[in-house]
């Protein structure tokens, strides 16, 4: 088992390089930017549909109003994603532009949205009340058009880069105000991006007889089919857990490629459900509630197992500290506290549990009559509740939840017991070395990490890899930043993680610590990728462990703005979330 971990560690820089790919980052961050659309539109959909489940009939005007709000939010999801993806891709591209040359992210955002409409939407005429009307087929404006959105975004930004790098822009006299001059500078790249996408649209329609968005769906239909088989679901879930196990945020690598499939399937499930049929798609957006039941690795039951069945004080303490966060899908306290990351004892259950869960879910959907997931709930919804809601409140879903909890417990328990024995032996050895009584030693040993696992954790935490894939440990420490503020009074701190869950834990600890110590410190939590518009309002930015791989990209931005950048390691980060006063002390020490 140790040989496997060493092999994974050896290839970790390669996996981190994949996670830092600017195209994957742009897709992930662009999609995150549109998550309010997904979540808000789902609320109106639930209002319109769920009362009927319990026999309540709402006024038809209210139902029509809710459906309209849904259609004009989720129904234009593709257009919005084109813009947000282009905006985030522009930010990455600007780091690679020659000095003094910058792409206008507002302009690329609008150009990408126009280009996406050209690639995805069909315009035709129809007669209404005796008059001819020009209408749009809106089918591909939503999730069906996501592939077109990504292609439009990438083409647009590359056209802008080509034009701006070569000064292919309209230049006005220096007396012209900057905002007006910028509009003229953007005319050529804007027109170039739109024309290229327009040409692609004409070629595809004439050669294939379908719009570009439908061409992609047609060509990728084998992938759609393969992804929804048992092997496909297992592969997707195993890859997500595997990347997390080696310290790279798995969803950031795996999900961008399947998000269009998941959302399209979920939309189709919803249509079937509303029509009174059986939603049969298993690969949907909220399948993550099953595969990542409690968080990546399907860790929902693990804290309870630690509390009830483990003898090691360390594992019992981790279980008590993580049981509430894990219930809300924030499992970093468990991942870095146990630790699970790069812990040889945890590799098999960490990967296997989610794979078993998605397989059982597909079996229940295909053979037992459980609905495929049709609604969207926030990612932090406790998984049992979320599964019950998204299957339209089916009682069989509760049976399914009970079964996967039992299966996950069976999968994890023997490996946890083996790891628990190792920790107990190590605690006993330290007790003997210290010459203390076992009762007194247990609490001391509980605070000391197991050497074998500590070494493994330390090897994964320097994930802020440089452009040449060297670990952060080889880079200059951020504390050498002389431009940052030295005094914590009046400090504004932004904590970033992948989904604003883990970051909220440290941000709240800093707020509590500031109240305890009387310091004037403001702290906020956010998701990496959604920080670019607000980061200049902060004095310090802290990267949570799962986004440390973006350290060097972030460092380029924080250095330019004179912001202090900190990136604590996994166990250190979790310790800070539990020690508010210590978090303030840590901030002060790292600003000196």
Written overview of the protein:
The chain is mainly α and about 600 residues long. The protein contains 27 helices and 6 strands. It has a 4-stranded parallel sheet, sandwiched between helices. Helix 25 links the parallel strand 5 (about 540-545) and strand 6 (about 565). Helix 13 runs antiparallel to helix 14 and helix 24 crosses helix 26.
Give short descriptive properties of this protein:
mainly alpha; 592 residues; 62% helix
SSE class: mainly alpha
For the largest sheet, list the strands in their spatial order.
4-3-5-6
> How widely separated are the two ends?
42 Å
How large is the radius of gyration?
26 Å
General shape: globular
Q: How many DSSP-defined strands?
A: 6
pLDDT < 50 stretches = 436-486
How much beta, percentage-wise? 5-15%
Instruction: Let me know the largest β-sheet.
Output: 4 strands, parallel
Number of helices: 27
Task: Give the integer mean of the pLDDT values.
Answer: 81
Helix content, binned percent: 55-70%
Q: Layout of helices and strands, plus pairs?
A:
Blueprint: H1 2-10, H2 12-19, H3 22-33, H4 35-49, H5 60-71, H6 77-94, H7 105-120, E1 122-128, E2 131-137, H8 146-165, H9 178-185, H10 187-208, H11 212-219, H12 221-227, H13 230-245, H14 250-274, H15 288-291, H16 302-309, H17 313-327, H18 332-337, H19 347-368, H20 383-390, H21 395-434, H22 438-446, H23 451-460, E3 491-497, H24 502-517, E4 521-527, E5 540-543, H25 551-561, E6 564-566, H26 570-577, H27 580-591
Parallel strand pairs: 3-4, 3-5, 5-6
Antiparallel strand pairs: 1-2
């Amino acid at each position: 088992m140790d040989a496997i971990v060493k092999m994974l560690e050896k290839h970790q820089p390669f996996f981190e390089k994949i996670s830092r790919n600017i195209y994957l980052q742009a897709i992930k961050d662009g999609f995150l930017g549109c998550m309010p659309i997904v979540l808000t539109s789902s609320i109106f959909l639930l209002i319109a549909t769920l009362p009927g489940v319990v026999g309540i009939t709402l006024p038809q005007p209210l139902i029509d109003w809710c459906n309209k709000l849904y259609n004009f939010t989720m129904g234009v999801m593709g257009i919005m994603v084109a813009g947000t993806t282009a905006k985030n891709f522009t930010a990455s591209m600007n780091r690679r532009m020659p000095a003094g040359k910058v792409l206008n992210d507002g302009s690329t955002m609008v150009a990408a949205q126009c280009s996406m409409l050209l690639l995805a939407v069909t315009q035709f005429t129809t007669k209404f009340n005796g008059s001819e009307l020009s209408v749009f087929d809106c089918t591909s404006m939503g999730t069906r058009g996501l592939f077109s959105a990504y292609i439009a975004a990438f083409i647009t930004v590359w056209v802008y880069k080509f034009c701006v790098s070569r000064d292919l822009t309209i230049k006005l006299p220096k007396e012209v105000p900057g905002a007006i001059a910028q509009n003229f500078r953007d005319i050529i790249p804007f027109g170039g991006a739109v024309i290229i996408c327009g040409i692609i649209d004409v070629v595809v329609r004439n050669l294939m007889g379908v719009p570009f968005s439908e061409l992609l769906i047609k060509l990728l239909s084998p992938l759609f089919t393969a992804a929804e088989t048992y092997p496909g679901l297992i592969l997707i879930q195993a890859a997500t857990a595997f990347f997390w196990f080696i310290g790279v945020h798995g969803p950031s690598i795996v999900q961008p490629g399947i998000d269009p499939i998941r959302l399209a399937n979920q939309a189709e499930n919803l249509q079937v459900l509303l029509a009174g049929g059986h939603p049969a798609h298993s690969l949907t957006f909220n399948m993550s509630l099953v595969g990542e039941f409690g968080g990546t690795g399907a860790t929902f039951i693990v804290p309870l197992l630690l509390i009830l069945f483990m003898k090691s004080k360390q594992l019992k303490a981790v279980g008590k500290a993580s049981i509430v966060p894990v219930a809300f899908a924030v499992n970093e306290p468990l991942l870095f506290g146990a630790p699970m990351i790069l812990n040889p004892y945890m590799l098999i259950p960490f990967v296997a549990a989610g794979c078993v869960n998605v397989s059982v879910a597909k079996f229940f959907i295909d053979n037992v009559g459980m609905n495929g997931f049709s609604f969207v709930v926030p990612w932090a919804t406790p998984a049992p509740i979320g599964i019950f809601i998204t299957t339209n409140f089916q009682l069989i879903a509760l049976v399914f939840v009970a079964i996967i909890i039992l299966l996950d417990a069976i999968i994890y328990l023997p490996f946890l017991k083996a790891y628990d024995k190792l920790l107990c032996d190590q605690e006993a050895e330290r007790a003997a070395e210290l010459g203390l009584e076992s009762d007194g030693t247990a609490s001391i040993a509980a605070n000391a990490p197991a050497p074998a696992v500590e070494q493994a954790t330390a090897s994964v935490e320097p994930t802020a890899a440089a452009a040449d894939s060297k670990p952060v440990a080889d880079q200059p420490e951020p504390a050498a930043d002389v431009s940052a503020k030295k005094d914590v009074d009046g400090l504004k701190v932004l904590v970033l993680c992948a989904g604003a869950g883990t970051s909220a834990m440290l941000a709240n600890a800093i707020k509590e610590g500031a109240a305890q110590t009387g310091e004037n410190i403001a702290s906020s939590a956010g998701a990496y990728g959604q920080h670019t518009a607000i980061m200049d309002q902060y004095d310090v930015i802290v990267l949570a462990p799962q986004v440390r791989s973006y350290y060097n990209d972030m460092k380029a931005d924080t250095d330019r703005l004179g912001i202090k950048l900190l990136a604590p390691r996994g166990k250190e980060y979790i310790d800070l979330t539990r020690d508010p006063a210590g978090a303030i002390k840590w901030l002060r020490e790292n600003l000196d």
